[in-house]
Inverse folding.
C-alpha cells in the first residue's frame, strides 16, 4: 500500500500518495487539467502554485509539476497572472536605461523588499536582476534572469506592481540583438550561401544515387 | 541521493569512471546498426502497428493508437455548425502557438497578411519550449550545408525528401541570423564565435545552444515578437476540424473553446497547421518527454480533409529520458549531456556504446542492454542505464554543468541528486514524431490547396529518424517558409462557399469499412485523471 498524505486543493481535503507531484496529485484527485498545465517539465511556467503548510505562516510558491506533495499542504494554483507586457519595436529600441524608464518605469518604485526573490520558483535573484535593469545593465540582467520561466509568481508578490519577467524579457532581447558580440562566421556563411558558393555541391547531392550517398555517409570524416 | 539498492552499481560506475573517460568506444558499422534497429527499436515491433483502412493513406501501417485516432469520429456534425457568419475572417489562420506557428505568424505578418493564431492552450505551450539541447546550422568554416545534408540524410536512413532537406540545411544559417536579430541569446565566446558541440550523428560541431534552455529562449522570444506585432492570439481554443470551400481548398477551421466548449468558425484564405507532435499518445505505452498538448491533432485535421501523411509509422524515442526518480519519469535529459562528454554506462560500470550514435541507434542499444543482455539497473519503473554526468566536470572543468546545463542540474537537484557528483538513470522516452503531413518545398500539403504545414506536424524533412538540433531548426525554417508562402498565396485566393461535407464523407468511409469505434478525435488533451468509478 502506498503511503498517503492529506492535501487541500483550494481548501478541499484529498488523500493522495506521498510520492506524487502536486500536478499529478490533482489528477489523482480527479481534476482533468486545462489551465495550469503545460510542459510538465519545469520549462513553461504554466503551473505556478502557492501553498502553505498547515500550522506554518510562510507562504511558499512553486511549479506544480516540479514539486512533491507534503502532508498538510494548502494549495492554490495560479494558472494566470496579469503581467504587464509593453509593446515595442525592437528595431527602434536604443540599448540604454531610457528604454526601461519609458516602458517599465515602475521598476524604479522597487522598495527592496525582496519578496520577488523569495517567491521565485526557479530560485533566481529576481530583485538583483531588476536592479541591473534599473541601471541599464542589460547584459547582467539577461544573465541573472536567464532561467526565468515567466510563471509570474514574483509579480504576484510585488508591492510596486513590477512585471519582472517582462522586464527581463526586454533586457534579454536587447542583449541578444545589440550587446552580445556579433558573429562573424555566421554573417560570412549567410553571404556565401546567398552568393551561391554551395549551390553546385548541394545540387550534386540532390541528383546522386542513394548508394553513392551511403558511401559518403558511411565514410564521413568526423570532427574530434 | 540513491537508496541502498543502487549503491553496488554506483560503486562500479565510479570505479570505472577514469578509464571510461579515456575510452573512445567504437562506432557501430552500418550493418550492426541495421541489425540492432530491426531487433530492438520500437518502430520495428510489427504487432504494435495497424493498417489504415480508410483515408488518403489507406493500406499504410501506423502505430495502433494513431490508427485509432485517425479513424475516429469527428467531434461535431456539420449540421451543428453555422458556416454563414464566421466569428473570425482572416488571410492566414495559424493553428498552433509553438515555435513553428509563431515563426509562421511573424512572416505572414511581415508579408502584409492579416494573420491570427489559435492555440488550444497558451502561446508557447509547445515542445519548442522544452527543447533543451540546441539548433543545428552549418556556419563554421570547417562545415557546409552539404556536409549537414549528408549527416541528416544518413541519420534519417536516406528517406528524407531531398527538396525539403535542401531547404532545411541551406536556410539554417539565415535562421540563426534571424533569431539573433530578434534577440535570441546564443552561447558565444567573447569574439562572437558560436559555441557549438556535436549531437548524435553529426560529423561537425554545429549545435548552437542557449545553455540548456535553447528552445525556451527561442520560444519566449518569438512569443514576445508576436505580441509586439499585435498579432491576435486566440488561446485556450482548439481547432477541431478544417473547413474547406466548394473547390476543395482549405478555407478555415471550426474552433472550440477549451473551457466553455463554445464552437466558433474561423474563415481564412490560407490555413497553416502547426500543431506539433504526438508524445502524449504514449505509443506502445512509452512515457514521453513531450508537452501536455502533443496529441497529433494536426494529423487528424489534415487527414480528415484529405491530406496525405508521410512516414507516420516512424517515431523517435529519445535515448535518454529520465528513469529515476519517478516524479520525472520520461522527462527529457538533453542529448547535450552526452555532447559535453557524459557516457552511457551499464549496471557493471561498462561504457557499452559510443555516446553519440544517432538517436534511434542509441535508444535501441539501451533497450538491448536492459533486455536481452540483462545489464540494466533495476528501478521502481523498470530498468535503466547510467548516464555518467560527473564525467562532464572532469572533462570540461568544475562549473561546466552549472554553466552549460543548468536546467538538468535543477531538475535532478529538486530530488536530491547532484548531477555534478552522481550519475543519473535513463531509459528511452517517446520524443518526436518523425512523420507527418506531406508537403511541397513551399510548405503546402501535396494534395489540399491553401493548406500549409510547419514544424513537427510535417513528415519527410528528416526521413525516418531525426538528428538532435534539426527540429528547432525545422520549426524556424519551415515555419518561416509556411508563413511567407501563405502570406503570398492569400493575395490571390478567393474563398468559395464554405463546407464541412468532408466530415460526412469521412464518416461514411468509417461505416463502409466496417470500423466500429467510439473514439472521437482530435484528442486535444490526454486524460490522466484517476478513474474512481470506472
Amino acid at each position: 500500500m502506498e503511503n498517503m498524505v492529506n492535501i487541500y486543493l483550494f481548501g478541499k481535503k484529498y488523500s493522495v500518495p506521498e510520492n506524487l507531484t502536486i500536478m499529478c496529485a490533482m489528477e489523482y484527485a480527479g481534476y482533468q487539467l486545462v489551465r495550469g498545465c503545460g510542459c510538465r517539465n519545469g520549462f513553461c511556467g504554466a503551473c505556478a502554485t502557492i501553498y502553505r503548510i498547515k500550522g506554518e505562516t510562510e507562504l511558499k510558491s512553486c511549479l506544480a509539476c516540479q514539486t512533491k506533495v507534503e502532508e498538510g499542504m494548502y494549495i492554490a494554483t495560479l494558472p494566470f497572472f496579469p503581467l504587464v507586457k509593453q509593446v515595442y519595436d525592437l528595431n527602434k529600441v536604443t540599448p540604454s536605461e531610457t528604454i526601461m524608464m519609458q516602458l517599465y518605469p515602475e521598476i524604479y518604485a522597487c522598495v527592496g523588499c525582496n519578496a520577488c526573490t523569495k517567491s521565485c520558483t526557479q530560485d533566481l535573484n529576481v530583485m538583483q536582476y531588476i536592479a541591473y535593469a534599473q541601471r541599464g545593465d542589460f547584459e547582467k540582467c539577461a544573465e541573472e534572469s536567464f532561467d526565468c520561466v515567466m510563471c509570474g509568481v514574483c509579480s504576484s508578490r510585488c508591492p510596486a506592481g513590477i512585471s519582472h519577467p517582462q522586464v527581463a524579457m526586454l533586457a534579454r532581447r536587447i542583449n541578444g540583438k545589440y550587446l552580445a558580440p556579433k558573429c562573424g562566421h555566421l554573417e560570412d556563411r549567410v553571404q556565401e550561401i546567398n552568393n551561391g558558393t554551395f549551390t553546385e555541391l548541394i545540387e550534386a547531392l540532390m541528383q546522386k544515387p542513394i548508394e553513392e550517398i551511403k558511401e559518403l555517409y558511411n565514410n564521413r570524416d568526423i570532427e574530434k | 541521493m540513491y537508496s541502498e539498492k543502487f549503491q553496488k552499481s554506483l560503486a562500479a560506475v565510479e570505479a570505472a569512471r577514469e578509464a571510461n573517460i579515456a575510452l573512445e568506444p567504437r562506432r557501430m558499422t552500418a550493418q550492426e546498426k541495421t541489425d540492432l534497429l530491426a531487433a530492438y527499436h520500437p518502430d520495428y515491433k510489427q504487432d504494435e502497428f495497424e493498417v489504415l483502412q480508410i483515408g488518403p493513406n489507406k493500406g499504410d501501417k501506423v502505430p495502433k493508437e494513431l490508427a485509432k485516432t485517425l479513424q475516429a469520429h469527428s467531434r461535431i456534425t456539420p449540421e451543428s455548425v453555422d458556416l454563414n457568419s464566421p466569428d473570425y475572417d482572416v488571410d492566414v489562420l495559424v493553428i498552433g502557438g509553438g515555435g513553428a506557428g509563431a515563426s509562421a505568424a511573424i512572416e505572414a505578418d511581415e508579408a502584409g497578411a492579416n494573420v491570427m493564431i489559435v492555440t488550444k492552450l497558451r502561446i508557447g505551450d509547445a515542445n519548442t519550449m522544452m527543447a533543451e539541447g540546441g539548433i543545428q546550422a552549418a556556419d563554421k568554416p570547417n562545415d557546409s550545408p552539404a556536409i549537414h545534408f549528408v549527416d541528416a540524410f544518413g541519420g534519417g536512413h536516406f528517406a528524407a525528401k531531398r527538396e525539403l532537406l535542401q531547404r532545411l540545411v541551406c536556410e539554417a544559417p539565415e535562421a540563426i541570423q534571424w533569431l539573433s536579430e530578434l534577440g535570441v541569446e546564443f552561447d558565444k565566446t567573447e569574439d562572437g564565435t558560436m559555441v557549438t558541440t556535436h549531437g548524435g550523428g553529426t560529423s561537425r560541431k554545429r549545435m548552437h545552444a542557449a545553455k540548456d534552455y535553447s528552445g525556451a529562449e527561442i520560444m519566449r522570444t518569438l512569443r514576445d515578437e508576436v505580441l509586439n506585432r499585435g498579432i491576435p492570439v486566440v488561446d485556450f481554443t482548439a481547432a477541431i476540424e478544417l473547413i474547406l470551400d466548394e473547390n476543395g481548398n482549405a478555407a478555415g477551421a471550426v474552433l472550440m473553446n477549451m473551457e466553455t466548449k463554445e464552437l466558433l468558425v474561423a474563415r481564412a484564405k490560407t490555413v497553416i497547421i502547426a500543431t506539433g507532435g504526438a508524445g502524449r499518445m504514449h505509443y506502445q505505452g512509452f512515457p514521453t518527454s513531450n508537452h501536455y498538448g502533443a496529441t497529433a491533432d494536426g494529423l487528424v485535421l489534415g487527414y480528415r480533409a484529405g491530406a496525405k501523411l508521410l512516414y507516420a509509422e516512424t517515431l523517435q524515442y529519445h535515448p535518454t529520458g529520465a528513469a529515476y526518480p519517478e516524479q520525472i519519469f520520461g522527462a527529457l535529459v538533453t542529448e547535450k549531456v552526452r555532447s559535453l562528454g557524459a557516457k552511457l554506462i551499464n549496471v557493471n560500470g561498462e561504457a557499452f556504446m559510443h555516446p553519440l550514435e544517432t538517436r534511434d541507434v542509441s535508444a535501441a542499444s539501451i533497450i538491448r542492454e536492459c533486455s536481452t543482455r540483462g545489464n540494466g539497473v533495476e528501478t521502481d519503473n523498470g530498468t535503466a542505464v547510467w548516464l555518467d554526468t560527473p564525467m562532464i566536470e572532469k572533462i570540461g572543468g568544475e562549473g561546466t554543468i552549472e554553466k552549460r546545463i543548468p536546467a538538468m542540474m535543477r531538475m535532478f537537484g529538486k530530488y536530491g541528486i547532484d548531477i555534478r557528483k552522481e550519475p543519473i538513470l535513463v531509459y528511452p522516452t517517446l520524443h518526436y514524431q518523425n512523420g507527418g503531413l506531406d508537403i511541397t518545398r513551399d510548405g503546402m500539403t501535396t494534395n489540399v490547396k491553401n493548406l500549409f504545414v510547419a514544424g513537427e506536424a510535417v513528415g519527410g524533412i528528416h526521413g525516418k529518424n531525426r538528428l538532435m538540433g534539426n527540429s528547432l531548426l525545422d520549426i524556424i525554417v519551415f515555419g518561416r517558409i509556411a508563413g511567407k508562402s501563405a502570406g503570398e498565396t492569400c493575395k490571390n485566393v478567393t474563398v468559395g462557399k464554405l463546407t464541412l461535407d468532408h466530415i460526412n464523407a469521412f464518416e461514411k468511409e468509417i461505416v463502409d469499412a466496417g470500423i466500429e469505434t467510439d473514439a472521437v478525435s482530435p484528442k486535444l488533451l490526454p486524460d490522466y485523471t484517476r478513474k474512481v468509478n470506472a
User: Anything to note?
Assistant: Chain B touches chain A through 83 residues (CB under 8 Å). The mean pLDDT of chain B is 97.
